[in-house]
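FW: tagging you since you asked about this chain on Friday. Here's the raw sequence from the shared folder, copied in full. Didn't touch anything.
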Amino acid sequence: MESLVIPGSESLDLRDPAVVAARLAAPVGAKHAAALSVLAPLVARACIAVCPPNPANFNVDNVRVVKIAGGSPAESAAVPGLALKRGVEGAVKAVSDAKVAVYAQGFDTTGPETKGTVLLRSGAELEAYSRQEEDAVAALVDAVAAAGVKADVAGGAFGEVALHFLDKAGILALRVPSKFDLRRVCRATGATALARVGAPTAAEVGYAATVAVGEVGSARIVRVAQGADAGGTGATPASPASATAPVTTLILRGATDALLDELERAVDAGVNAFKALGR
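HL: got it, structure written out here
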């Protein structure tokens, strides 16, 4: 057993990508040997980017995976920040230096608790009723904009009228239907998911250096990045080891879904092996 120990393991530097990649070669290669030379350094840099000062507190959930069919594993890349495989809802495609509001439900005015029927006797009454609804939505968006919010993230759908006023105010609208991804957005930005539809308080808003939609292959990717990690939205950024990000996303490329699943399992093995190294 002693002959299998890699020299230098007694003084392992978990901040050195080359050293960490050598230790991750076995668990990553056991899942997908063909892409070992690509995945091991990639996983090492991604793990180092989100590793806290005490490696024992490393959280494996801070390394996310997005699978995009097409291309080859050699085109895979580590993107500092959170990347989501989806587009934005409105016309605003990118914001920078943005306060972020996160809502656990859809973004629209709330309806009545009970069903009812509105009796309209004339076109003037219909116009007044419609204007009243629009004024309520406009007031909601104005309150959100007054709080300095530039990116609005919702777990449900955006109302058409609400989306119109959000575009008019220059606020990016992003729908994240997965509650797990919504939690990751909150962790990446420091925002609090609101159970009400209204203007967030200063303690409830999050922050992102950039929230922007880009394209990788034929898929749209929305990236939420912080600080030095905010440069660009493509899949070939600078090394994520240059700055610590709350979340790092590995964008995996492959010709088939089966191959992408194998690569994801290899990444999962490597990330968990990194956590074991820090204990």
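FW: DSSP finds six helices and ten strands in the chain.
HL: agreed, and Strands lie at 63-69, 77-80, 82-84, 94-103, 149-154, 172-175, 193-194, 206-216, 219-225, 248-254.
FW: great, closing this out.
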